[in-house]
Amino acid sequence: MLRQLLFQNKRRLITVVSFLLLLSIGTGAVLAYIATQTPPLENTLEPGSVSCSVNETFDGTVKSNVSIQNTGNTAAFIRAAVVINWQSKGENTQILAKAPLAGTDYTIAYSDSGWVQGSDGFWYCETSVLAGESTPNLIQSVSPVGDPPAGYSLCVEIVATAIQAQPISTVQTAWGVTVTENRIVPQ
Questions:
Q1: In the beta sheet, which residues pair with residue 52?
Q2: Is the Cα dihedral 27, 30, 36, 38 positive or negative?
Q3: pTM of the model
Q4: Rounded to an integer, what distance in angstroms lies between the CA atom of residue 139 and that of residue 105?
Q5: How is 70-90 classified by DSSP, letter by letter?
Q6: Half-sphere exposure of 49 (CA within 13 A, CB side)
Q7: What is the span of the domain harbouring residue 33?
Q8: Closest CA relative to residue 160, chosen from 84, 71, 79, 56
Q9: Element containing residue 22 per DSSP (H, E)
Q10: Do both 78 and 169 map to the same domain?
Q11: How does pLDDT run across 31-76, given as a tens digit for each residue?
Q12: Looking at the predicted structure, is the pLDDT value of residue 139 above 90?
């Protein structure tokens, strides 16, 4: 009886060991097949970049349809400074110390929607701009009135900057603004 019990346990042990051996050989074969037959995956992650450019129409006298395009690859908030001065004509550019006066030396028509001016003088596009998209027009048109000082012409420069839209804390910290419901509120 003891002999029969030992023989049965030995058979069970051999069966279990054989099963484990087949399982490990099968697993190894499957892993080897996967390793040799699966093509490598390429990393398709692209680091975020934030940049912008000013789009405008200029006919030599009148600047119009001024907007800013998000040329980066992620959504961004955009702000712009409008710098207006008298600039000399010719190779050695000089800026006249006396600034031109709105309504007297030039007329400017800002857009009535999509932009808000902050107490810091910057114009802020109220919503973030998707990659490749443009802001609403900041300026509809700006043109000189009357004659400029001798040797000078009216110069209107738009200096735009962009900052990533996410996380919101980035724009709030860097620009000192508040963002609520994806709308920027300057101080």
A1: 70
A2: negative
A3: 0.74
A4: 17
A5: E-SSS-EEEEEEEEEEEEESS
A6: 9
A7: 1-43
A8: 79
A9: helix 2-37
A10: yes
A11: 777 767 767 777 777 788 999 999 999 998 999 999 999 999 999 9
A12: yes
